[in-house]
Design brief:
This protein is mainly alpha-helical and 202 residues long. The chain is 73% helix and 0% strand. The relative contact order is 0.15.
């Protein structure tokens, strides 16, 4: 099932000159991975702590976009500049999940959203990524199938953050926003598990 992840090659092409310069200056893929996670954690902590300042939610789409770029950069440094490592694999997957949680859970502090809905979405997103990683063990490789992959979740979360910061959410649909995203994330996990089962049976 197609997702925004399909746009990644074009995005990487635009970043390649920067990546080549970073590699020439000795910047490592692992340092970029850790930087992206720290940026997400700091932004999420600020939003959760100062949640009465609703405009801070505008940090989320900015951080998500920068993090998407950094994730592409660390991957290119690893693959194209001989920096791939087992440590890098662990850092990449763990830091991605930590970053997602850091930018999702602060929404639970906002009264208009159901805290349980936010937590359900956070858990479902982790399950989707876990199912994707298990594709390696199933022999089909890291699975990025949708309908609600990492890039799609980032786009949705960014839109939610902007609308919430601007006070534009219709009151009638607010309680269903995060449960709906949780449902799509669970469907994504199921699709990835199904793909692994089919692949391992073939």
């Amino acid at each position: 099932m197609p997702t925004l992840y399909a746009l990644k090659p074009a995005f990487q092409g635009r970043l390649r000159p920067l990546v080549n310069q970073l590699a020439a200056n000795g910047v490592t893929a692992n340092s970029i991975t850790i930087l992206a996670a720290l940026m997400s954690i700091v932004a999420g902590a600020a939003i959760a702590t100062l949640h009465e300042w609703r405009w801070l939610l505008l940090l989320i789409p900015v951080v998500l976009f920068v993090r998407m770029a950094l994730n592409a950069v660390d991957g290119m440094l690893a693959r194209e500049h001989g920096q791939a490592s087992t440590l890098g694999m662990y850092l990449n997957e763990i830091c991605d999940v930590v970053s997602d949680l850091a930018l999702t859970l602060p929404f639970a502090a906002f009264a208009q959203f159901s805290a349980w809905g936010v937590i359900a979405f956070a858990i479902a997103a982790v399950l989707a990524e876990f199912a994707g990683v298990l594709g390696i063990a199933a022999g089909i490789g890291r699975n990025y199938a949708g309908p609600f992959g990492k890039s799609d979740r980032a786009l949705a979360l960014g839109v939610v953050a902007v609308l919430c910061a601007a006070g534009l959410w219709p009151v009638s649909i607010v309680p269903f926003v995060f449960p709906a995203m949780a449902t799509l994330s669970l469907l994504t996990a199921i699709n990835r598990i199904r793909a692994g089962l089919i692949g391992s049976a073939s």
